[in-house]
Amino acid sequence: MDVSIIETSSLGDRSYLISAEGTAVVVDPQRDIDRVLHLARDRGTRITHVLETHIHNDYVTGGLELARVTNAEYVVPAGDDLRYQRRAVKDGDIIDAGAFTLLVLHTPGHTHHHVAYVLRENTGVPVGVFTGGSMLYGSTGRTDLVGAEHTEQLTHAQYHSVRRLAAELPPETAVYPTHGFGSFCSATPTSGESSTVGEQRDTNPALTQDEQSYVDELIAGLTAYPAYYAHMGVINIAGPAPVDLSAPEPVDPDELRRRIDNGEWVVDLRDRTAFAAGHLGGTLSFELSDSFVTYLGWLYKWGAPLTLISKNHEDIAEARRELVRIGIDDLAGAAVGEIHTLIDGTEPRSYRVAQFPDLPPASADRKITVLDVRRTDEYDTSHIHDAINIPLHELTDRIDTVPAGEVWVHCASGYRASIAASLIDRPHRDVVLINDDYDHATDLGLTTQ
């Protein structure tokens, strides 16, 4: 058997293709299924089963479409009222893929009906377990995504689910989680690129703490998660539409200006420093990187017209792929070209880019504001002296509370700050983007605990 990882680093998730003797099974596929189809073709295998560990809350699944186009059996945990045909599996069921089997274990916690799939050789020996959002690498999945009223119950359930996996599986069993590689679905940060059940027995909090300590610590540590999560389960329950990765309609400079003037979402994908050096007033900076889709999805007003700006068509195609993963399908168009051609005679806006050593002390004759757009829990741990904290995901609703005048904006690395700087960039403000690691501020003695 071979287990191939399909990484989606922008969402912190993994999908898997298990193959042997010309047969393949896919676990938790992302919506852009062309990656899975190419991998299966490269392996010379036919996909016979597509498995979901749970109804996902952080991305739109590709499972339904993948099963349809490959004529595979679609396997989903029993319990959810879904609007499409599937095989609903429960604890103890077996998925027979010929050269190997997968045993279903009910592992509630991340969701009520969550399951894990134990990969077994034909001899019945377990060799791996696909844990979805239960046992992660040094952590577990968060338990608050299906409603606050369920969080305590699900946290207790998560504890017992992880303990069940550790008790029933040999220590050498490989662990293959879906979440935990930067995903906000993880209750706490994870560590490592691979692990086994035995290693988790020594490091996973559900296995090293007593039940109440685990529950109390997990719930106390839960932080804000992206707003677009509210839409993912709804889409996945209804059944996602077939994916469309076609190029959006081109937008000329006149139409681009009209959309900006109308207050529509016009997103510039260029590097954050290039945006700062010159951009169209009213556009937003979302540098195309691994953080792009998480933060755009977090701030985006669901269903609003969205136009992209980039210097090349390749970036537009990559951004479209990222957006369909979270269900943003209907792009209003894209403007491609160097920024001076898109400005078309209008006056560009710009602002300064600096680092923490450049931050001047406040004085009677130079009043400055330091705006920290990290999450509240990050700010409470440590922050710049006298900085005000407005988390990025709250900024659009609180933008009128940002003081006029000179505003220095920072986060942990510069990415969130670059989005915030573009949001508050107005004629009555002198914006400075601090494009620097926060640790640098700590080294300089600028922070307080």
List the topology elements:
Layout: E1 2-8, E2 13-20, E3 23-27, H1 34-43, E4 46-51, H2 63-70, E5 73-77, E6 87-89, E7 94-96, E8 100-106, E9 115-121, E10 126-132, H3 151-168, E11 174-177, H4 197-203, H5 205-208, H6 211-221, H7 229-238, H8 253-261, E12 265-268, H9 272-277, E13 284-285, H10 292-299, E14 306-310, H11 313-324, E15 333-336, H12 339-343, E16 352-354, E17 368-372, H13 376-381, E18 383-384, E19 388-389, H14 392-398, E20 405-410, H15 415-424, E21 429-434, H16 438-443, E22 447-448
Parallel strand pairs: 3-4, 4-5, 5-6, 10-11, 12-13, 12-14, 14-15, 16-21, 17-19, 17-20, 20-21
Antiparallel strand pairs: 1-2, 2-3, 7-8, 8-9, 9-10, 18-22
Helix pairs in contact: 3-6
**Architecture of the largest domain, CATH level 2?**
4-Layer Sandwich
Q: What ranges have pLDDT less than 50 throughout 5 or more consecutive residues?
A: none
Q: How much of the residues is beta strand, in percent?
A: 15-25%
Q: Oligomer, anyone?
A: single chain
Taking strands numbered 1, 2, ... along the chain, how are they ordered across the largest sheet?
A: 1-2-3-4-5-6
DSSP strand count = 22
Please give the domain count: 3
Count every helix, treating DSSP H or I runs of 4 or more residues as helices. 16
Q: Just give the CATH class of the largest domain.
A: Alpha Beta
Helix content: 25-40%
The mean pLDDT is 95
